[in-house]
């Protein structure tokens, strides 16, 4: 799998998300899947995508915590 193809798909996911939380969560899930596929095939994980995954994870955890507050 070419990294350019991966980047193109991730960009498409973000453009489809249209700033909706549910869609953004779907982007995160797809990013998890793409990185898992790279890892499973022994390919190196792009540092920028690993950082993006961590930032998105943190953002969703933060939003989930705010929703629980009264």
Number of strands: 0
> Could you report the average pLDDT, rounded to the nearest whole number?
77
**What does the overall shape look like?**
globular
Residue stretches low in confidence (pLDDT < 50, at least 5 long) are none
Number of helices: 3
Q: Which structural class is indicated by helix and strand composition?
A: mainly alpha
Short description, anyone?
With 70 residues, the protein is an all-alpha fold.
What does this structure look like?
- Helix 1 packs antiparallel against helix 2 (21-40) and helix 2 packs antiparallel against helix 3 (47-68).
- This protein is globular.
- The protein contains three helices and no strands.
- The model has no long low-confidence stretch (mean pLDDT 77).
- It is mainly alpha-helical and 70 residues long.
- The protein has helices spanning 3-17, 21-40, 47-68.
């Amino acid at each position: 799998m070419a990294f350019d193809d991966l980047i193109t798909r991730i960009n498409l996911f973000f453009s489809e998300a249209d700033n909706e939380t549910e869609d953004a969560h779907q982007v995160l899930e797809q990013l998890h899947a793409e990185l898992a596929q790279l890892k499973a095939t022994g390919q190196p994980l792009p540092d920028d995508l690993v950082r993006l995954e961590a930032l998105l994870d943190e953002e969703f955890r933060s939003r989930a915590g705010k929703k629980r507050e009264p």
